[in-house]
Each structure stands twice: as structure tokens, then as C-alpha cells.
Amino acid sequence: MANPSYSVYTGTMVKILELAIRKASNLPEAAQERLGRELLERIEALEHLRTEIEAGLRELDGGLGEEIDIEEIIRQAHEEHAKKA
């Protein structure tokens, strides 16, 4: 049975994409090309992320997960951020 909230989300998403495409069609061709490339790159990045998440979930389901130290991860993230600043 279809998930009703998914149908609403999909319908809304399609309407938003259609609106974005209509607005983009008024832009110069170079801008349209750039937007199209950026959108495709974003979609590809999301597809890759989804693949990585699914692999991680399979590992967790298979008992391959390990405990992490969240404080250490936060510290490392702060260090990396500080290097970029």
C-alpha cells in the first residue's frame, strides 16, 4: 500500500521543481546550463550519500558497528574547522 504522506511530498516536490524550471527558463542559456550542472551534481552527491548510508546500515545490522567517542569526533571537527579558518 502506498504511503499517503510520500505521495503528498512527491506531488509538492514535482510542483516545486516545475516552478524552478519555469523560472530558470527565463534565464540566459549559460545560467540555465550552470544550474542544470549544479542540480545534477547535487543529485549525484545525494545518491552517493544514500549508497554510503545503506552500506553503513548493512554493517550495523551485521553487527560490525563499533562504539565511538563523540567528544573525540567533535574535537577533531573543531580542529579541522580551525585549520580552514
Radius of gyration in whole Å, from Cα? 20 Å
The SSE string, one letter per element, is HHH
Task: Output the structural class.
Answer: mainly alpha
Please work out how many helical segments DSSP would assign. Answer: 3
Helix content: over 70%
Proportion of residues in extended strands: under 5%
Distance between the termini: 50 Å
Number of domains: 1
Average pLDDT rating: 90
* Low-pLDDT windows of residues: none
DSSP, total strands: 0
Principal-axis shape equals extended
Largest sheet: none
Quick tags:
85 residues, mainly alpha
Describe it.
The model has no long low-confidence stretch (mean pLDDT about 90). The protein is extended, with a radius of gyration of 20 Å. About 0% of the residues are buried. The protein has one domain. Helices cover about 80% and strands about 0% of the residues. It has three helices and no strands. The protein starts with a helix and ends with a helix. By secondary structure, it is mainly α. The chain has helices at about 5-25, 30-60, 70-85.
Quick structural summary:
The protein has 85 residues and is an all-alpha fold. Helices cover 81% and strands 0% of the residues.
Helix and strand arrangement:
Elements: H1 4-24, H2 29-61, H3 70-84
